[in-house]
Design goal:
Layout (H helix, E strand, L loop, with lengths): L1 H4 L5 H30 L2 H22 L8 E2 L2 E2 L6 H17 L1 H7 L1 H7 L7 H7 L3 H6 L6 H4 L20 H24 L18 E9 L2 E9 L8 E5 L1 H5 L3 H4 L8 H6 L5 H4 L2
Antiparallel strand pairs: 1-2, 3-4, 4-5
């Protein structure tokens, strides 16, 4: 919408967008880890993940007033400012320490996680390329693709972070990629909160003049690339066309290769390993 309106969000808004996006990535990955643990029969880890998820939601509520639907973005910036970045930074650092002590060590060293995930649901690098998978599923099959690095948007070009990649393409690799991304998100959040520039957090405009044309935007969501395309005709009150492509829509066909030769008992975990969002796909 900013593309067809010729509007650019202020620098402070770009950083706040990064902060909200990375908190959402943390929330998504920790939620997925809890569900994966439950499917493994690892109920203690399930409860630990959901306890950490509550703390992430507390941070989101402190910023936006909402635990789930934040309503932060608007055309030309964000709806709310971050007025006390240091208090949010303390919460993020405490969260990072807890993840480093609990989630990462258990998922990377646990015999339960290894026995249920290693060598299960393999998607090779060649299959990943041919299917065009995105996000953690692609990175777990050895493809180092991430729009935050490959086509930076918002303030990502000004931040230092790594893109975790695993070569094995199995459920364990997808688990490890998300676990390592949790730590990278904490690294990004620390930088973004520390470097949050002064100034306005939106343009202050309430009405916009949209021009004839099509604008496309892509972001690296927790599940992978999300693409929006908006077409507008000048003078119209509504867009002529809005098209959305979600990561689950792209990744879901890969399950047919992952389950080949698998035990029936492993198929729920294999399917869950792509972190599917059925409502994103069944539109």
């Amino acid at each position: 919408m900013e593309g067809v309106a010729g509007v650019t969000a202020p620098p402070r808004a770009q950083y706040i967008r990064v902060i909200m996006a990375e908190l959402e990535r943390l929330h998504s990955h920790v939620l997925w880890a809890g569900i994966a643990a439950k499917l493994m029969g690892f109920k203690t880890m399930f409860m630990a993940c959901f306890e950490i998820r509550e703390k992430i939601m507390d941070i989101l509520a402190a910023i936006s007033g909402n635990r789930v639907n934040y309503s932060m973005n608007r055309i030309g910036g964000v709806n709310r400012d971050i007025t006390d970045p240091q208090s949010i930074l303390k919460m993020v650092e405490a969260l990072e320490g807890e993840m480093a002590r609990t989630v990462i060590p258990i998922f990377t060293t646990s015999r339960t996680a290894r026995s249920r995930c290693a060598g299960i649901g393999v998607l090779t690098k060649e299959q990943a390329v041919s299917l065009g998978v995105v996000g953690p599923v692609a990175r777990a099959s050895g493809l180092p693709q991430d729009l935050r690095k490959d086509a930076p948007y918002a303030a990502y070009a000004e931040l230092d972070f790594d893109v975790p990649v695993q070569p094995d393409g199995d459920v364990r690799a997808r688990l490890l990629v998300r676990a390592l991304e949790i730590m990278e998100s904490c690294k990004i959040l620390r930088q973004a909160l520390a470097k949050l520039p002064p100034g306005e957090f939106n343009t202050g405009e309430e009405k916009f003049n949209f021009i004839t044309g099509t604008s496309t935007a892509r972001v690296e969501a927790p599940r992978g690339e999300v693409m929006y395309s908006v077409s507008w005709k000048e003078g119209s009150r509504n867009p002529a066309r809005v098209h959305v492509r979600t990561p689950t829509y792209v990744v879901m066909p890969a399950i047919r290769w992952m389950v080949k030769g698998a035990r029936l008992a492993d198929t729920p975990l294999i399917q869950a390993s792509i972190d599917p969002c059925y409502s994103c796909t069944d539109r």
